[in-house]
Design brief:
It catalyses: [protein-PII]-uridylyl-L-tyrosine + H2O = [protein-PII]-L-tyrosine + UMP + H(+); [protein-PII]-L-tyrosine + UTP = [protein-PII]-uridylyl-L-tyrosine + diphosphate. This protein is of the alpha+beta class. The protein contains 31 helices and 15 strands. An eight-stranded antiparallel beta sheet has the order 8-9-11-10-14-15-13-12, with helices on both faces. β2, α4 and β3 form a beta-alpha-beta unit. α5 packs parallel to α7, α19 packs across α24 and α30 crosses α31. It is globular. The chain starts with 9 loop residues before the first helix and ends with a helix.
């Protein structure tokens, strides 16, 4: 392409730059290189016009521009280098260079320094030194630039023992602040761990000659992240490194990818390569620095050993009795040894003849809490072959040992995965590898979540009779997410096949498949169904089938939730699940669940009801619910607050209560409503509401204020809809992905006593108020509500009846669900 050599002005450069960025045929490294070349030519023209002699002064590109990697909106990092002989001319030249760049609206990071100043600044500021490592001559005195490059590189290599630990600390601080690129839904391509800054840091380590990063795949991974950043700049028109949700579909289209998920998966795979290379490289840096620090002591030992040998040859008996240095290689397992803080292969190990060796080495490393040596993993991968089906018993045991090793399992698993050994052992793993989960509740990709679940499950192996089945189910419970349809259904088929291939017998395979199929059953039932309804408990008992499977499912449920993220598990959820498990265990032991109609009101219920009848107004009670602390010295954990309300029976109670709670920023967890039979001689009927609520933030409001607002809501003097609308207007929601529309369904045969209607919608303040108002319009009675929120998704379940207290006929139930869905879509 012919650049505008004849026109060094901003107009010519801007036009040529625009043509280059619009060339669809040229993208990726060629475009970045061409853009850098075009910019070089323009700046060289500006430089020549301002300093015709060009002696004792040069223009130097540093950082990303120095690497000739200009993205469409990248900063220009420039150093005007001079020998200090003519400061006035240099100052005028700087103005001739910087102002045209600013006039074009390009971001500029600039400095004017002598070589001595540049060297001193680099010594004081690590980021400046890193930028100068990529210094590249653009215009002017080439000898000046070359001398600076030589000096800076020499300084970097001489100071590496001191500077590299500082660089590592910088990387770790950035990772703690920005998170891990390979798991974030809106990642920063540059700053997050495994991003472009980490790739630059690895180049700096290599330049020190102290250690080198694993090169296989590293350049390609870095290039992929740069391609994504290019597309992000082009689609947004901004200099951004944040891959926001609303931009991902456009960026994917710019790169020719199927969708945003395909884009994220490529980003995650690249980040994983860079992050793993960083782990290996920094471990090697640490090893080299440790060996350097002990070298003087080793020289002294070598002299002593030489003296020892001389005395031995001379027949000095004292010398022969001297001690031997400790062995450098300590055996861990067959074919596996520890050396210098890493797990390596024994000299006699034969990966091509020992198919269990990768699992044995991984299990030994995880048990010892040590990393697997990179070269050992690559040697095993080079000679590895698929295990026979079913696996030998030793292979199955080593896999279970690896999965049961706790936190060290994660790093060891990632080392195997980086070299393709996991895909060889478990071919189905490829479908979940680096697969994003578009749910704010999930912290991890699908594959990392599965390993994280196994880590959590390893803490529960003492409380179940078959820990082996628990660990395998933890590893496989979401394996169906790589296939279309319900991932639990697809996962059951895959888990059955994998468990048989691993070598479990038919009965164990059935248990594992059941656990995978129903891994969401306990938490979904406990939080969305009426546990007092016999149909609820019986349906779970039928699905689980045996006490042993129930015990495993309970542990898997908790491990899965803990591995998902903090929003997925709480003391409240744990208490509900434990209650359900207790009831199901009773049914499996032959006891019939008690009928909910037999539950009698408590003395407190009757007291509140009589007070409500006497006053003709709502009466309420707030009481904190806690459970014993996990540690003996800890404080009780809150389960929420029990809110009891008795109100003379009338229309509009559900939306009124839900609306008042929303106004006071109280989150509803469960809600039960029922009519209370009053003692003989007392006229009227009372509706009793027994709810569990939690403060969204801050402290709970006073009961008197809640009661006053409830009175106003029931008589119509409190405009709840208006108050909620004002709040929404005052705090506009952040722009993001468009939420899917609400969906309302009727759960078939979920209860003999009521019709169960399930509402799935985007969570928002006042959602329960809107649902309650819509249900009031359909003239059904709400017996209980079970509210469950995970991230931005609310799943609210309502047990409704006709006025006579019986379930709705099929057609009427469908009609009610349809009207409710229509009302929520408005």
């Amino acid at each position: 392409m012919h650049h505008q050599a004849e026109d060094s002005g901003p107009g010519g450069y801007a036009a040529a730059r625009l043509r280059l960025l619009n060339e669809k045929a040229r993208s990726g490294p060629p475009r970045r290189s061409a853009l850098a070349g075009l910019t070089d030519e323009w700046l060289a023209g500006l430089f020549a016009a301002g300093a015709p002699a060009a002696r004792g002064v040069s223009l130097v590109a540093v950082g990303g521009y120095g690497r000739a990697e200009l993205s469409p909106r990248s900063d220009l990092d420039l150093l005007l280098l001079h020998d200090g002989s003519d400061p006035g001319t240099v100052s005028k030249l700087a103005d001739r260079l910087w102002y045209p760049v600013w006039d074009l609206g390009l971001a500029l990071d600039h400095s004017v320094r002598t070589p001595t100043e540049a060297r001193r600044t680099a010594g004081e500021d690590l980021k400046v030194q890193l930028g100068l490592l990529d210094a590249r001559h653009v215009a002017g005195d080439l000898g000046l630039t070359t001398a600076l490059r030589t000096t800076v590189l020499a300084d970097w290599r001489n100071q590496a023992p001191k500077r590299l630990p500082a660089l590592r600390e910088l990387c770790e601080e950035r990772a703690a602040r920005q998170g891990e690129l390979q798991y974030l839904l809106e990642p920063d391509l540059k700053e997050a761990r495994g991003g472009l800054r980490d790739a630059t840091a690895l180049r700096a380590v290599a330049a020190s000659w102290l250690a080198d990063a694993p090169r296989e795949g590293l350049a390609e991974a870095r290039g992929r992240l740069l391609d994504v950043r290019d597309a992000l700049h082009l689609t947004t028109g901004r200099a951004t490194d944040r891959l926001a949700l609303q931009e991902q579909d456009q960026v994917a289209a710019e790169l020719g990818l199927l969708d945003a998920d395909a884009l994220l998966r490529q980003v995650y795979e690249a980040a994983r390569v860079i992050a793993y290379a960083g782990d290996v490289t920094w471990r090697e840096v640490g090893r080299v620095l440790r060996s350097r620090s002990v070298r003087p002591r080793l020289r002294k030992l070598a002299r002593e050993r030489s003296d020892f040998l001389r005395r031995a040859v001379a027949g000095d008996g004292r010398a022969l009795g001297g001690g031997k240095p400790a062995p450098e290689r300590s055996p861990l397992a067959e074919g596996v040894v520890e050396q210098d803080g890493e797990v390596v292969l024994a000299r006699a190990a034969r990966p091509d003849r020992d198919p269990v060796l990768p699992l044995r080495a991984a299990a030994a490393a995880a048990q010892a809490g040590l990393p697997l040596n990179l070269h050992a993993v690559r040697r095993m991968a080079a000679g590895a072959r698929a295990l026979p089906s079913p696996w030998p018993a030793e292979a199955r045991q080593q896999l279970l040992t690896l999965l049961g090793s706790g936190r060290p399992t994660v790093d060891v698993w990632e080392a195997l995965e980086a070299e393709g050994l996991i895909s060889l052992l478990l071919p189905d793993w490829d479908r979940v590898r680096c697969r994003p989960q578009r749910n704010a509740v999930h912290l991890w990709t699908v594959d990392r979540h599965l390993i994280e679940t196994a880590v959590r499950a390893s803490a529960f192996t003492r409380r179940v009779s078959r820990p082996d089945l628990l660990l395998i189910a933890a590893l496989l419970h979401d394996i169906g997410k790589g296939w279309p349809g319900d991932h639990s259904v697809a996962g059951e088929v895959i888990a059955r096949d994998v468990a048989a291939r691993i070598g479990f017998d038919a009965d164990d395979v059935t248990v594992i498949a059941t656990l995978v199929r129903h891994h969401l059953l306990l938490v979904e039932t406990a939080t969305r169904r009426d546990l007092d309804d016999p149909a609820t408990v019986r349906s779970v008992a039928e699905a689980v089938g045996s006490p042993g499977t129930l015990e495993l499912l309970h542990a898997l449920t908790e491990a899965d939730a803990l591995a998902t993220g903090p929003a997925a598990w709480s003391s409240w959820r744990a208490a509900l699940v434990a209650d359900l498990v207790k009831r199901v265990a009773a049914v499996l032991a032959g006891q019939a669940p008690s009928d909910p109609e037999e539950a009698a009101p408590t003395a407190q219920h009757e007291r509140l009801a009589l007070e409500a009848v006497a006053t003709g107004a709502p009466v309420l009670s707030l009481r904190a619910q806690t459970e014993p602390p996990a540690e003996p010295s800890g404080d009780p954990e809150p389960l929420g607050v029990e809110l009891l309300i008795a109100v003379p029976e009338q229309a509009g109670v559900l939306p009124a209560v839900a609306g008042v709670l929303a106004v006071h920023r109280l989150t509803v967890r469960t809600a039960e409503l029922r009519s209370l039979d009053l003692p003989d001689g007392v006229d009227g009927s009372v509706l009793l509401l027994d709810w569990r609520v939690a403060a969204e933030y801050g402290s709970l409001p006073q009961a008197a204020r809640l009661r006053a607002d409830l009175v106003r809501a029931l008589d119509g003097s409190l405009d709840i809809a208006g108050r909620l609308a004002e709040r929404d207007a005052a705090y506009p929601r952040r722009r993001g992905v468009v939420a899917p529309p609400p969906r309302v369904t009727v759960a078939p045969a979920a209860s003999r006593h009521a019709t169960v209607i399930e509402v799935r919608a985007q969570d928002a303040p006042g959602l329960l108020f809107r649902i309650g108002r819509a249900l009031e319009d359909t003239a059904v009675r709400v017996r209980s509500a079970h509210v469950s929120t995970l991230g931005a998704n609310a799943v609210d379940v309502f047990y409704v009846t006709q006025e006579q207290g019986v379930p709705l006929p099929g057609e009427e139930a469908v009609a009610v669900a349809g009207k409710l869905e229509e009302a929520l879509r408005v």
